Predict the 3D structure of the following.
Amino acid sequence: MKLNKSEFPSELFLPLLQEEKIPRYIALFKALRQSIIEGKMIAGAKLPASRPLAQSLKLSRNTVKSAFELLLAEGYIETRPGSGSFVTHSAAIAFPRADETPSSRSFKAEKKLSKLAERLNWQDHHTIPYAKYLLEPAIPALAEFPWMQWQRAVNYAGRVMKHQLVSSGLGCAQLREQIASYLQIVRGVKCHSNNILIFSGSQQAIYLSLQMLLNPGEGVFVEDPCYFGIEGAVNAVGANKILIESDEQGFNLSPDKQYLAKLAVVTPSRNYPLGHTLSLQRRLALLQWAADQGGWIIEDDYDSEFRFDGPPLTSLQGLDTEQRVIYSGTFSRILHPSIRIGYLVLPDQLVRPFTLAKQLMQGDVSILPQLTLAQFMAAGHFSSHVRRMRKLYLSRRNLLQQLVEQHLSGYLQLVPSDGGMHCVYLLAAGFSDEVICRRARELGVGVKALSHYYSSENKRQGLVIGFAGFNQQQQQRAIMALASVFSDC
Ligand SMILES: Cc1ncc(COP(=O)(O)O)c(C=O)c1O
């Protein structure tokens, strides 16, 4: 029997057949199976007879027969007495055809996704490689992390872990106690360790809160501009996003909008990314709204440890007398991005439903990193690292502002802020922040476009420039690169 090349591209099998470590009949079986999986051999396609195939591939006939037997046993082919071997329908149905393009396949797959998955498909900011570019925002000083002390805490946690295999559902008790006493002293948060629920980062915590507090279509107040992760999570739950402008005094909720939402997500200590602090008057107004409407407030307190003009401000939660505030904190920015531990401080009535939901949807956070962090805090390393980083970040911020002043003053105007890990600059008229950022990225500089953080049409053009993770040489190199981008525009 003659080999039909178009139906049976034997040259495709050669690389596999040359694999030395596996028997040849297995290599041929895998090659044939691959052809079926990739749709190169469609349902009903006839396989060549064993003799001509063996001749054409320079194999023994027994090798080919053994490969066919395996295909038959796994249901990829069937034999019809007197006619030969054919690709089965079930094999061909299970796998797509080769002439379907990947995009037509993914389109079909998308059609089968849930509404939630469709809503998640909103933008791809999170696929950008982390810490790859200079001046990227939200990168702490990675080289300064006290690895030795962390290692000691890991060793300790490894030793005591055998007594801690069962979690209460809220998270490791030692860690919750450390967090509670830290928050009471430093952030003025009113809490008991039993109100703290540990998560793998605050993104997860905030997303679960939105799922628990909002039905699709219900209103939620969101700052404009705001953090991508919050906007994405709000979109994902299908809530009705009501944008609230953030000005110099922070989140500005006007009386006419008060009835539109049951939840507000805010960054009162430092608006992300603009850096404004929510004024006392507006804090009290927001708490009043929550008390009057039975509304909830999620306070996303992502990096308020790094305030340079004085100690961290009292949290919004600390002012709340009605238990309407859910306080969210994270260690990923303060310590290291790979320490994926965040937490919620919950009002009493939310502890049980949130804990049950977390168990069902996400399960426990691994105990070893929780115990490690608890020990790291108990030994005083957390506080001393924060103190050290506060000084370092202040000097890095001053350096950035000097460099911008020297090399970019005609193009950029600083938005004042009392701390943080990045600065925001507004762009001079006539420049597009997207264009600047795209060109800067080509030169290895990862500043972000301010306009991307806005959902409304009222987008301001500016740059979000991270300084915390970058030393003098890196900042100088990056600012010179940015200057060249501006002069070429
Ligand atoms: C404003 C804001 N909220 C929440 C998060 C999420 O933090 P985590 O890394 O703990 O998920 C971030 C992370 O950068 C952030 O910038």
The chain has a mean pLDDT of 90. The longest helix spans residues 381-408. The pocket of pyridoxal-5'-phosphate is lined by residues 138, 201-203, 227, 229, 267, 272, 300, 302, 330, 332-333, 342 (CB under 6 Å). DSSP finds 17 helices and 14 strands in the chain.
